[in-house]
């Protein structure tokens, strides 16, 4: 009896030890998951920051790019004699202080390549590994800073802006598609990072030029940003088992403890990972159905971005106040910085505030655009600080439209459709921006030819 009791006691002890081992294993896995989630959130935040950085800086530098304010003795902090900017003579007969070329031209150079990429990519981008796409993004962003910094003509500068657009457009559709393999929290991290790019990009350009650096030296200093993007993608992300775990197009072997994968990444890894369950490719008809289902979010988002970028690139330059200590280039940089500050705040607010009525944001942004258009036409605003408040409000609306649209798309899409849906949703804001740039140029020319 005692012997049996001893065996029972030993079995009980073994059972308790096994339970403790399971508990410790579960606790360690939970800790590992929390650590991985923290890394992924940080990684996507940095990817969002770096991806949009060059795009934002080019818009912040638009006035300088068109004015060629790269000589140290002026540095955008004082009036520039005509000899310093032969390609950009101010229109003396107009009531407005205008560039000969609208900053909308920089916007178009910064967005049209993105528009082309986003329209074509959802249907063919799955043929290219994620690593290759990231390599193109990094190289294009780095080249854009160098080309604009050393440019000797407006045409060369605009080519540099085009490179920034290629990097931003390809990066956005790549990284948003990549979020479909991760916890949905990374969408908020990505969105916050893109908002941070606006604020940090505009503020750093403003701060460095105000501190005495020329626009050229400022752009050269910013070549570190593409390197940070590369490091974030290669070393910071902790991809889950179902994610494409790839470097420069070479897939790493799956962990032996990883569970079976239910999704096939967009890399064609059939030879590398034959044991994976293949996700069937969506047919053209299925893709059309997914796209149609997203229109209730995408159309309002396009309107939001059309209105705000019409303000930014069509009206900012015309909202010039002479009764301040800031000259025209400085005022333009402050407008861009305040707008990006509003975008950053609202894009980082998704965990606190969710808005599903994107059409309401579109209406408010259009009202903002109409009011500022009347302000430019009749010049009735008494102070630049009123414009500062309106621009901050504009950024809040735009950032809220972006982050809430992508959250709605991510939550309402079926798992097998989510990767494609997130890529298609990228088209909406780009289309709105492109239309605003095309309209901003003739509007700018109209106002600048008024007596």
Automatic annotation (TrEMBL):
Subcellular location per the Swiss-Prot or TrEMBL entry: Late endosome; Lysosome membrane
Keyword terms: Endosome, Glycoprotein, Lipoprotein, Lysosome, Membrane, Methylation, Phosphoprotein, Prenylation, Transmembrane, Transmembrane helix, Transport
Superkingdom of origin organism: Eukaryota
Q: Which residues cross the membrane?
A: 42-62, 130-151, 157-178, 185-207, 219-238, 358-378, 384-408, 420-441
User: One biological-process term from Gene Ontology?
Assistant: amino acid transport
The annotated regions of Polar residues compositional bias extend over 85-94
**Which stretches are tagged as biased composition: Acidic residues?**
11-21
| A cellular-component GO term for this protein | trans-Golgi network
Chain positions covered by the region annotation Disordered? 1-25, 72-94
For this UniProt entry, what is the primary localization, expressed as one broad class?
Answer: other
What topology in the membrane does the UniProt record assign?
Multi-pass membrane protein
User: Is Transport set as a keyword in this record?
Assistant: yes
Keyword Phosphoprotein part of the UniProt annotation = yes
Q: Which family does it belong to?
A: Belongs to the battenin family.
Name of the featured protein: Battenin
The protein's organism comes out as Pantherophis guttatus (Corn snake)
């Amino acid at each position: 009896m005692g012997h049996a009791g001893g065996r029972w006691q030993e079995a009980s002890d073994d059972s308790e030890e096994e339970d403790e081992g399971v508990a410790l294993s579960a606790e360690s896995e939970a800790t590992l998951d929390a650590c991985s989630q923290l890394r992924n959130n940080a990684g996507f935040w940095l990817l969002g920051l770096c991806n949009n950085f060059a795009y934002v800086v080019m818009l912040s530098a638009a006035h300088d790019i068109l004015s060629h304010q790269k000589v140290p003795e002026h540095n955008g902090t004082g009036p520039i004699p005509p000899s310093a900017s032969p390609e950009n003579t101010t229109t003396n007969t107009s009531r407005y202080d205008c560039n000969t070329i609208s900053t909308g031209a920089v916007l178009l150079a910064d967005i049209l390549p993105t528009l082309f990429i986003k329209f074509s990519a959802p249907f063919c981008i799955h043929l290219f590994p994620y690593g290759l796409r990231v390599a193109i993004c990094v190289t294009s962003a780095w080249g854009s800073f160098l080309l604009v910094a050393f440019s000797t003509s407006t045409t060369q500068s605009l080519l540099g802006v085009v490179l920034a657009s290629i990097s931003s457009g390809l990066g956005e559709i790549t990284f948003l598609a990549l979020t479909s393999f991760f916890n949905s929290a990374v969408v908020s991290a990505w969105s916050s990072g893109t908002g941070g790019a606006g604020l940090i990009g505009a503020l750093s350009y403003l701060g460095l030029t105000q501190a005495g650096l020329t626009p050229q030296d400022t752009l050269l200093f910013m070549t570190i940003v593409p390197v940070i993007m590369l490091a974030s993608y290669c070393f910071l992300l902790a991809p889950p088992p179902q994610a494409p775990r790839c470097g420069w197009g070479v897939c790493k072997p799956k962990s032996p403890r990883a569970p079976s994968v239910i999704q096939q990444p967009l890399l064609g890894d059939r030879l590398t990972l034959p044991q994976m369950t293949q996700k069937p490719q969506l047919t053209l008809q299925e893709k059309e159905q997914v796209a149609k289902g997203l229109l209730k979010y995408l159309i309002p988002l396009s309107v939001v971005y059309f209105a705000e970028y019409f303000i930014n690139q069509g009206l900012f330059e015309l909202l010039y106040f002479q009764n301040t200590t800031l000259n025209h280039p400085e005022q333009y940089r402050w407008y861009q910085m305040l707008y990006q500050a509003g975008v950053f705040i609202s894009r980082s607010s998704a965990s606190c505030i969710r808005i599903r009525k994107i059409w309401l944001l579109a209406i408010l942004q259009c009202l903002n655009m109409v009011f500022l258009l009347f302000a430019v036409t009749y010049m009735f605003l008494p102070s630049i600080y009123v414009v500062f408040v309106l621009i901050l409000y504009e950024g809040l609306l735009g950032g809220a439209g972006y982050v809430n649209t992508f959250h709605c798309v991510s939550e309402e899409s079926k798992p097998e459709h989510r990767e494609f849906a997130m890529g298609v949703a990228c088209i909406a804001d780009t289309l709105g921006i492109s239309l605003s740039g095309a309209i901003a140029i003739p509007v700018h020319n109209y106002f600048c030819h008024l007596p």
